[in-house]
Structure formats: structure tokens, C-alpha cells
Amino acid sequence: MTVDVTFWARYAFAESQIIEALQTVAGTRLRVVRDSQEAIGAVDDTDFFVLVDAPAEEARAFMARVSSGTGRLAAMHFNSAGIEGFSSAGMPDAIRITQVKGALAPGIAEHVFALLLGLTRNLPASLAAQGRNSWSAPEQESLSELRGKTMLLVGLGHIGRSVARLAKAFDMRVLVANRTARDESGIDEIFGLQRLDECLPGADVVVLSIALTPDTRHIIDRRRLDLMRETALLVNVGRGGLVDTNALADALIGGHLGGAGIDVAEPEPLAPDHLLWQAPNLIVTAHCSGISESGARRIAGQARESLVAWLAERQGQKP
Fold first, then answer.
1. Structural domain 105-284, CATH architecture
2. Which of 239, 266, 298, 304 is catalytic?
3. What is the pTM of this model?
4. Which of 57, 198, 268, 293 is labelled catalytic?
């Protein structure tokens, strides 16, 4: 019997690779949809759904259709590590849920260091001078090194571990604040998340990659920004909601923070008139830290593996 698979292609990234990978699975018929209405309409005659997280309203509408009991959806594979929208909507226990794991971590870790090196070597000033056809170096006081500095990672999933490995190549001391405090190779010290306040004052660099939950929303707020060194750098490659955006803008403009690199914001897209755009020592990238050809192939491979494993389970075989 042919199994119906639907891929909700919300984004162009990795779309062709995912389609190609899923089409190679024998005994399946693939449909590609590109908006929420198409996706909801496909629920009733789909066995296996491949998708990414969606805004809460779209996720609720999708899951309401799933929960209506008129369809045969049995499994969902998320190409996104975060599924906050769908988690808030609630997912029936009867549906098998899998997620991508670590596919984008190597590229995101490199992006973290692109942001950090851009800040420590004041690349925005050099690029601005280049745009003016001007051979002029940044002010000496704006240039620094990462070597020997202390990095605090907030969150130690696949991304955090990849960042930690690169940090050690820069001879950095690596501290971690995480939900669970367990020993990890390559980590100098690890603390429970409840000890974040005592970790922040000693960090030269703070990197956020923890999942966004009600407990971690605005985990870096005005009070915690005040705990950080005035020379410290903040990098957020997790979710925009981890940081109080207005407080970050005030800290940078007021000179209470050395600099920041953000790949995510709250809200997204950041409004053109938002105060944060006026902040000094800031590098903004538009939620692209995980994009790479290698990452796309890894995402596609994991989607295929999840489908193959589910088919094998369904048939009572080993994948």
C-alpha cells in the first residue's frame, strides 16, 4: 500500500534537497504544499508530514484539523529544532513526533564566531570605510582578541557543544549555564540555569542557544544586562524572545555593553524604525546562521531517515 507523505515547504532553504531525499523512499507518494491552508487541507489524506515550526495561530489551526479525528496522520517530522508554536498548540500522544538534531549546529557555530570576530575586529568600521573608498583602520581601542577570554554558553545542546569546540580553538575558557549541570568534555565549568546571575559578571562573551520556553523568555532582560561587564559581547542565535530587545538597545546606546551580534530578534522581522537599528557595536543578521549547503543536505537526510524508520516500525521491521 502506498503511503502518503506531505512536505510543508514554508521556506526555500533546503526545499529541493528535502524533496529529492523524500522522493527516493520506495512505497511513498510525495505532495508539496507551501502555505498553511494547503497544509491544513492535506491533513486528512496524509500519513506522514514533514514540516517546520509555525506561528502559534497557524499551528493551532493545523492541530485542530489533526485532532478532529477525520484523518489518518500518524507521524510528523520537524525540520526545525524548535517547535514552540506546535508545542503550545498541543500534539496528540498517538502521533509519532521526530525532530532534526544538530543538522545546522556546525554552521551556526561558525556564524557565532563570524559575529564575534566581526565585533572584536570592528569589521563594520572597515566595511564602512571600504564603502567610502577610504583606506582607514578602525580606532585602536575598538580592536581586541578572543584568545584567553571567558565565554558563557547559555544552553548546551548541539549548537552549544559546537560553539564550545570552536571556543577551545581560540584558547577560551568555556563556562555553561544549562538546565541540567552535568560534566562535559571541553567545558571548564558548568552550572545550573538558576546560577546564571552569578555567571554573567565574569563572562567576556555570552552566547545564547537555549530553547525558548516560558521559563527562558527574556532570560536576558534589563536586570541581567546590568549584571554583565560593560565590555562584554552578547550573541543570540537561539530565539529572539530570549532577549528583551528594548533593553538590549538601551544597553548598547548607553554604553553599558561592549557589543552584540544577533541572528534572531523579537519581533521578526525587526521593524525599520526600531531603536535597536540605531545601536552602536551591533551586527544583525536576518536569521540566516544555519543556512549552508551542507546543512541543507543534513536536514534532508534526517527527514528521509525519519520516514524510513517510521515505515519500518509500521511494517514491524528494523529500519
1. 3-Layer(aba) Sandwich (3.40)
2. 239
3. 0.91
4. 268
